[in-house]
Amino acid sequence: MGIKLSRKKTRNLLLTIIYRIQKLLPLSHKAKFKLYLNLEWIFDRLSHEASFKNYSSDNHPVRTFSKEFILPNISKNDIILDLGCHEGDMSFIISEQAKEVIGIDYNKNAIEIAKQKYKKNNLTFIHGEALEFLKTNKKKFDILILSHILEHLDNPKGFLMSFKDYFHYIYIELPDFERHYLNHYRKDLELKLIYSDDDHITEFDRNELNALLIECNIEVIKEEYKYGVQKLWCNIIAD
User: Fold this and answer.
1) pLDDT on residue 229
2) What pTM value is reported for the model?
3) How far, in Å, are 75, 134, 214 from residue 109 at the CA level?
4) Structurally, how many domains does the chain consist of?
5) Is 228 a domain residue?
6) Is 6 contained in some domain?
7) Is 100 in contact with 80 (CB distance < 8 Å)?
8) Longest Cα pair distance anywhere in the chain, in angstroms?
9) According to the model, what pLDDT value does residue 142 have?
10) Which of 153, 149, 158 is nearest to 201 (CA)?
11) Quick one: residue 183, left, alpha or beta (phi over 0 = left, psi -120 to 50 = alpha)?
12) CB 3.0-4.6 Å disulfide test: which of 95, 180, 186, 198 passes with 194?
């Protein structure tokens, strides 16, 4: 929901000062444009990082929005693997609805934190490599959770093809390159500060992600592009 504002706005002293200073900068219009885009990226990142100190993990808007999208798609009979679960926040959210959730991550410290934070009978955390776990485990899973995973991979197609046969559905969540027109300016100007995180390999736009899923014979059933994030609930089509 948006907000209603009065037509006359309160004067912002900091904004006024910055406007006056920027007029004095001995830079070309293009150089100023690049500077402003980089500053916007820096302060956006600082603001996002600060948000995690002002919200708890269970009421942060990022988690709340994901919860509102994903829980209606999960039944009480579903057995779910949360791949790359890190400290277990998403696993815990999903466990509210699912029959069983297993969170797996190769980061041992993160798994230990998850085990301490979240203790439920239907929730298990495992330190290990997910594909090896699936090959040796006899449990049948219904849903694979890929929350902020694909953007970190060198070969997302190969990754999806390796995992898809073990599940009926996949939930995919990752940053939306088209969240703001400023990213297109950054791309045109070939700026280095254009990524969402410094270990991302790919910043997917919407068409690119959908094309990848089509290549993997994965059908998007439900999608949402809000709050700077792409969320897709997908059905795995038998090859």
Assistant:
1) 94
2) 0.89
3) 31, 22, 36
4) 1
5) yes
6) no
7) yes
8) 68
9) 96
10) 153
11) alpha
12) 186
Q: What is the mean pLDDT of residues 135-160?
A: 94
Angle 63-37-186 (CA atoms, 0-180°, nearest 5)? 85
Token duo for residue 173: 């969540």
CB–CB of 117/85 below 8 Å?
no
Within a domain: 44: no
Tokens encoding 49: 């990082």
Average pLDDT (148-156) is 95
Q: Would you call 105 exposed, middle or buried from its count of C-beta atoms within 10 A (0-12, 13-18, 19+)?
A: buried
Phi first, then psi, for residue 107 (nearest 5°) are -85, 105
> Quick one: pLDDT at residue 4?
87
What token pair was written down for 51?
Answer: 């948000």
pLDDT tens digits along 66-125: 999 999 999 999 999 999 999 999 999 999 999 999 999 999 999 999 999 999 999 999
Tokens of 165: 């046969």
What the block records as the tokens of 68 is 């509102």
Q: What is the CATH number of the domain that holds 223?
A: 3.40.50.150
Whether 33 is covered by a domain: the verdict is no
Residues ≥6 apart with Cβ < 8 Å to 89: 57, 58, 63
pLDDT in tens, 27-44: 999 999 999 999 999 999
> Domain span at residue 196?
61-236
